[in-house]
Amino acid sequence: MVTASSRQAFIGVLVALLATFSRADTKECWGFAFTNDNKPPPGYEHDHDCVSVDEPSDPHTWNDNQFCAPKGIGLQWSNSGPIKGMKCTQIKEDAEPGEHTWFDNFICIDRDAQWDFEWSMTGPIENKGYRCVGWNEPADPHAWSDNYLCARPHRPTGTTTQQLPLKGGTTTSSQPAVGRMEFHMDGWSKYCTATLVAPRIALTAAHCVGYKSTAIGTYGTVDFGASGKRTVVQARPFGSNTGKSDVALVVLDKACSKKITPVPIGTAVPSDGTEISIFGFGCASESTTCVRAGGNTKQVVTATIGESAVLCPGDSGGPVLVAGKIVGVNSARWWLEQGDVFGNPTTASIKYAMEVLPKDFPCASSHGCADGTSWCNLGVGQCMPAGQCLELKRQGDDACLPPKVKCLCPDHASTCTDKSVKCASLCPPRKILTPKD
After folding, report:
1. Under a CB-based contact definition with an 8 Å cutoff, are residues 400 and 406 in contact?
2. How far is Cα 250 from Cα 235, in angstroms, rounded to an integer?
3. Cα torsion 410, 411, 412, 413: sign
4. What radius of gyration, in Å, describes the C-alpha atoms of the chain?
5. Residue 136 — very low, low, confident or very high, per pLDDT cuts 50/70/90?
6. pTM of the entire structure?
7. Which residues make Cβ contacts (< 8 Å) with residue 294, sequence separation at least 6?
8. What domains sit in the chain, N to C, each tagged with a CATH number?
């Protein structure tokens, strides 16, 4: 339970963290960064958007600076006034000469983006829930050393909550359907929480899969502890930003153990003030920074919709439960007393996808493929038309072929083993796969 005293202590720690992140040398914070070398900082290449911060009329190398922000907020830079229909913040330095035209430069984000920006020419903004990133061009002599763009989450009015560790939570072995997800794609990795909602489908946050739908492949694992680990073979996100649409389904390579009962999804998001149970594999201590990967221990905490501030990295994707049903997905944490942000998994589109997705993966872990299809490993294992399997497997691994199918190798470069119903070496590109007469 989040008590008043624990909340005061928690807020005190967060204020201390804000002070730590408000030093004059700060150029990265809260997923935002400013650089002077015309490229994003390491780790920002895949799940962040970056824009060039330029002013053509200023001769002091304002042509190699970039500002980066988390994907999904519509980040744009303008040196010709605010962009119509967007939420824009003026970037300026009053000490700049008029001919450098620093009076019509703006950083803009989508009007409904869940961030508020404020510009400061006198150092970082303190004690308002902001975190600040220094904007400094060393080659410009006009007092840019104390300029900061400050950001804080924008609290939506009248509805839901959500994001990341269960600070103040307790270790739990309940809810075995809640697992630790490790997701890999395009050279980056994320550590989140996922919940089994069907034998081969788990629910998580869209930002945990990079907001990207995936083709069949190998994208990491969901570890259910003693009940086993499953490979993620496909992801289907339903949103492109933190908040109520920050929900995704991931398909597993095979059904989970019957020891795990999938958790049902509720029919509606509860109102503010409802008592909830939040699960996740994030950090458990209040001193953990906001960039740490998720932990290995499952935590649970009792909190209240609209007031909780208990999430941490690694809890993303974890379930919010009321009466044993999932009514939210951990998405993001608002700062200080402003509560958490949860995705809404109760929509009709998600329920429809849960019905359709398994039909794309009719084959379970056994090799009981129908005639005319074959079992292809491809790193994940699935039934495919024999010809398609052969086409995809020219590079190497074995495929399990049904008894009525054999390899024909016209150039006699390789043969197939009939007894084991496996190809010791799959046919080269010119060879074909045909049914026996």
Report:
1. no
2. 4
3. negative
4. 26
5. confident
6. 0.47
7. 165, 180, 191, 192, 193, 280, 281, 282, 283, 313, 314, 315, 316
8. 23-153 (no CATH), 170-357 (2.40.10.120), 373-435 (no CATH)
